[in-house]
Design a protein that fits this description.
The chain is built from 13 helices and eleven strands. The longest helix is centred in the last third of the chain and has 25 residues, at 284-308. The protein is globular and about 70 Å long. It is an alpha/beta fold and 312 residues long. The strands form two sheets. The chain has an eight-stranded mixed beta sheet, with helices on both faces. It has a three-stranded mixed beta sheet with strand order 5-11-7. Helix 2 (44-53) links the parallel strand 2 (31-37) and strand 3 (58-62). It folds into two domains: 3-114 and 150-197, Spore Coat Polysaccharide Biosynthesis Protein SpsA, Chain A (Alpha-Beta Complex), CATH 3.90.550; 228-308, no CATH class. Helix 11 packs across helix 13 (284-308) and helix 12 crosses helix 13 (284-308).
């Protein structure tokens, strides 16, 4: 078997047809696909079973705990591929995704390979969120979200791995229910493994569609990031800390407003939000939405990070 593809799913009926359509026609013939289901209740399993009738590459693994780390670690021993791919269900993969990944692993230019995200929203709010998540002002220097050139990186979103990577460094950390792929990639970097991002592996990623979902997503990213940084201290970057310090500043601001200079950073931030909210190709309505999207990203992540410092 050349390639084993593992995909955690939970109530993905809205996305599953596009996902499978982008997978099955582009996979190499010697492949196997494991859908790791967290007890879906929306018909996802029934859709997958319909596809599996005509394609014996499709397999199922039940993930009662629902977390990606547990599901991947449960499915990995069942795989037989020379290479292992961990994908997300909220995405569509290009025709060149698997071919480009295999070529770069075969020629030994890297140990892990993935592509940039083309972030897409399905609604007006979703498009504003996708634009902010593709901006360095929105998400810092997260390379797979904000860049598209070929380069070695700290992490990629959906990756293909040499099997020996897991044999040497271990599987996903089950103490993490978010950022488990980041922790794995930081761990691999610290052990000398090379992670390559190539534009031919770009994939479409569907973002959250409202501020509530976005806040929850980035709050959890922030909440588990300190645990990741404690485990792999060499992975710390300044972008990880800026939202945390911003939230601390906002908490302290009411206490020190009598000193005018302490208000200046807030004024600068508001001006930056206005600049990045309006200097983009979005409609005027979505530009207005963006004024709320950027602070949601920053405050939710920073608040999560602050509380995550005390999380065991």
């Amino acid at each position: 078997m050349i390639l084993s593809v593992l995909i955690p799913v939970y109530n993905e009926k809205e996305y599953i047809h596009n996902l499978i359509g982008s997978l099955l026609s582009n996979l190499p013939s010697e492949s196997e696909v494991f859908f790791i289901d967290g007890n879906s209740t929306d018909g996802t399993i029934e859709v997958l079973m319909d596809y599996s009738i005509n394609d014996d590459r499709i397999h199922f693994v039940m993930n009662e705990l629902r977390y990606v780390s547990h599901g991947f670690n449960k499915a990995f021993p069942l795989t037989t591929g020379k290479y292992v791919c961990l994908l997300g269900a909220h995405a569509e993969y290009s025709k060149s995704f698997f071919e480009a990944g295999l070529n770069n692993l075969d020629d030994d230019s890297c140990d892990v390979v993935g592509g940039p995200l083309i972030q897409i929203g399905k609604s007006k709010w979703g498009e504003a969120i996708a634009n902010a998540m593709s901006s360095k002002f929105g998400v810092g220097n997260t390379e797979f979200r904000t860049e598209s050139k070929k380069k070695y990186v700290d992490s990629v979103a959906f990756a293909m791995y040499k099997r020996e990577v897991f044999n040497a460094a271990g599987l996903l950390d089950q103490s993490l229910i978010r950022n488990q792929d980041d922790e794995l990639h930081y761990r691999l970097n610290s052990q000398g493994f090379r992670i390559l991002m190539v534009p031919e592996m770009a994939c479409k990623y569907y973002v959250r569609e409202n501020l509530s979902q976005l806040f929850s997503q980035y709050y959890q990213y922030g909440l588990y990031k300190p645990m990741v940084l404690k485990k792999v201290k060499s992975s710390m970057r300044i972008r990880h800390l800026i939202p945390f310090f911003f939230v601390i500043y906002l908490i302290l601001l009411p206490i020190v407003t009598f000193v005018p200079v302490f208000v200046l950073p807030l004024v600068v931030y508001i001006l930056l939000v206005g600049h990045f909210a309006y200097h983009n190709p979005l409609s005027w309505l979505q530009k207005g939405y963006s004024i709320f999207v950027f602070p949601t990203l920053h405050i939710s992540y920073g608040l999560g990070f602050m509380l995550g410092l005390f999380k065991k």
